[in-house]
Description:
Blueprint: H1 2-15, H2 18-30, H3 35-55, H4 61-85, E1 92-97, H5 105-116, E2 120-123, H6 130-140, E3 144-148, H7 157-167, E4 175-179, H8 185-191, E5 195-196, H9 200-210
Helix pairs in contact: 1-2, 1-3, 1-4, 2-4, 3-4, 4-5, 5-9, 6-7
Bound molecules: CO-5-methoxybenzimidazolylcobamide.
Amino acid sequence: MSEAILEQITENLIKGQAPVVKELVQKAIDDGVDAEEILNKGLVAGMSVIGDRFKRNEVYIPEVLIAARAMNAGMELVKPLLKQAGVKAKGTVCCATVKGDLHDIGKNLVCMMLEGAGYEVVDLGVNCDAEKFIQGVQDSNADAIGMSALLTTTMTNMKTTIDAFAEAGLRDKVKIMVGGAPLTQNFADEIGADGYSPDAASAVDLLDSLLGLA
Ligand code: B1M
C-alpha cells in the first residue's frame, strides 16, 4: 500500500509534477507513511533517477531544475517531520561559488542534487571568500565544502581557500570538493582538493565516497 504511493511520488518527481508530488506526499503523511521512507523511497529515489539520466545526457538542465522544484515541494512537508523525528542528514556540506565569481547556475544544481541525495546543504552563495567558507563550516559543523568556479581568473581562489583552511587548522576536519567548467582533475590535484566532479550528479557520488558512504 505504502509502496504504491511512494512509487507514484517517484514517478511524478521524475516528470517534474510539483503540485502532484506535494499532494501525494501529503497523502502519504496522512496515511501514516514514515517521513524517512517518503524521503528516501519516494523523493530521493526520483532525484537519483534524474541524476543518472543527467549524467548519461538523457535529460538536460531544465528537466533537472523542474524535478528539483518538485523535490522541494515534497521536502517542504517532510522536513519538519524529519526534524521532529530526529532523522539525521547523511552529512552537511557548505557550497558556494568562489571569490570574484558570480556564476551560480551550476553551483545551484550541485546544491539541489546534494539535497536531493539526503545531505544538509548550506548555500553560501556567490563571491564567497575563504573567511566566509570557514565561518560557514564553523557555524554548521559541516563535513565538507563544495567550491564552484566558472572563470579561469577565479578558479585560483580555490587554492587560496584550501590554504586558509590549512592555516586555520581545519584542513583535516573537512573534505573539499571542487567543480566548474574550466576545472580538470589535474587542477584539483594540483591545488590539493580532495575531489573533482565534472557534473552535479557526480558530485553526489563524489561526496558519498569522500565521506565513506559509497
Ligand atoms: Co559568464 N562567462 N561571465 N556570465 N557565462 C562564461 C563562463 C564564459 C565561458 C563565456 C565565454 O566567454 N564563452 C566566460 C569565461 C571565460 C573564462 O574564464 N575562460 C564568461 C565570462 C568572461 C563572464 C564575464 C567576465 C563577462 C564580462 O562581464 N565581461 C562575467 C563575469 C562575472 C563574474 O562572475 N564576476 C560573466 C557574467 C555572466 C552572467 C552574469 C551574465 C551569467 C551568469 C548568471 C548566473 O550564473 N546567475 C553568465 C553566464 C550565464 C555564462 C555562460 C553563458 C553559462 C554558464 C552556465 O551557467 N552554464 C558561460 C558560457 C558557457 O558556458 N556557455 C559563461 C551552465 C551550468 C550548469 O554549467 O556552471 O559549468 P556549469 O556547471 C556544471 C559543471 O561545471 C558542474 O556541474 C554543473 C552541471 O552539471 N559544476 C560542479 C559546477 N560547479 C560545480 C561544483 C562541484 C561539482 C560540479 O562541486 C562543488
